[in-house]
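User: quick one, fold this
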Amino acid sequence: MTNQPSILVIDDEMGILDVLRILLKGEGFDVTTAQGGKAGLEQLKAAAPDIVLTDIKMPGISGTDILASVREQDPETPVILMTAQASLQTAIQAVNQGAFYYIQKPFSNDDLVAICRRAAEQRLLKAENKQLKQEIRRRERSGLVKPLGKARPFLDVLRLAEQVAPTESTVLIQGESGTGKEVIAHFIHELSGRSEGPFLSLNCGALPESLLESELFGHVKGSFTGAVRDKQGLFAAARGGTFFLDEIGEMSPATQVKLLRVLQEREAIPVGGTGAIPVDVRVVAATNRDLEEDIKRGRFRTDLYYRLNVIAIHLPPLRDRREDVPIFVTEFLKKIAQEQGEPPKRLSPEALEAVIVYDWPGNVRELENALERAAVLTKGETIDLSAMPDKLTERRAEPLVADRTHVNPTLDVIERAYITWVLQSEGGNKTRAAEVLGIDPSTLYRKLSRYDGAVAKDDEDS
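Assistant:
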């Protein structure tokens, strides 16, 4: 809220509106007026005021209707009700419905100004308190919820995610299947000002068009066969939070049009309905498709693409962050052990090397599935290469140089990944790690120093 609190005044009598506008403007308020309840609702949709001052008895849309709409749009907005026909019962009813204050006409100017100032102070205090809580929560969570990974390309992704999280900008996460797009979306949500709201997700490619629209926007009873009651859509259910739309490229052209309208107008119309429902969500979308190519082929709308692609995040595949593979191995084996109620297993050196060298076309998801299968098939503490999928050990014909799309990892990358894995397995104890590696502690320190120096140099060059 600014130093000049905004107030929306609603009354069906233009004379009263003129008087209140002059009075409140002279007292330092930024005043907007609306003649009648319908005009008041339109003003509420156009801009959210800090305070609402409304008459109760108006033709068509009453002051209690205005109160209900404000409460739905932002429960923190104080609403002051005015009426010429006050009673104790109506005053109690108004307060129970969430009104900040109830004042009877005619009222003194000083009394009304004092009530409006108290409402502004309460609004400011609540806003500051909310902002403080969000900042504390963001600082607490920034070191707790970071997704796994230390590879340079992935750290660049995390830095960008942390930078855009506090904003309200729409984010488009692109990357191959299994790279962890939903993990990044959840990370953005947890560090955002909406972290106390819900995080809802939907795979747009998992439902037929009719069901997808119902899930997104809701439906009214009788709108289609099987619609036996009204249903709230996920855009409404995610109010105040984040809505993650996965595989957005699978959405049909008709649904794309409706989604574009939601993003532009910030309101959704349920299937079979006529009334619009306000939308207050931050949208994070994801796809493994090349949307720009889909646009050229007429499969995806250009205007929707630019609405979604305000902030673009590109997740690297696992083959481009091989030094992170041992980190995933350790965490996944720990997780699998907890689920099975037994001590964590570990990969043999041969198995680990094969896991690091393999390209993992299914990325992190494929790696986790392979480790779970290997852990189940292994009776002892060490998982041998024989327990891993055959494709990790199959001899493949060497491709022609012109056909190579990925560079094989160097011995230095494999060595660094293996040392990182051993260090993690030994809880960061360098002396024990050196014993496991069969090298002098001084040699280990020298290698770690060289790796740190390489990372530092990369940072300087960026």
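User: anything notable?
Assistant: Residues 109-142 form the longest helix (34 residues).
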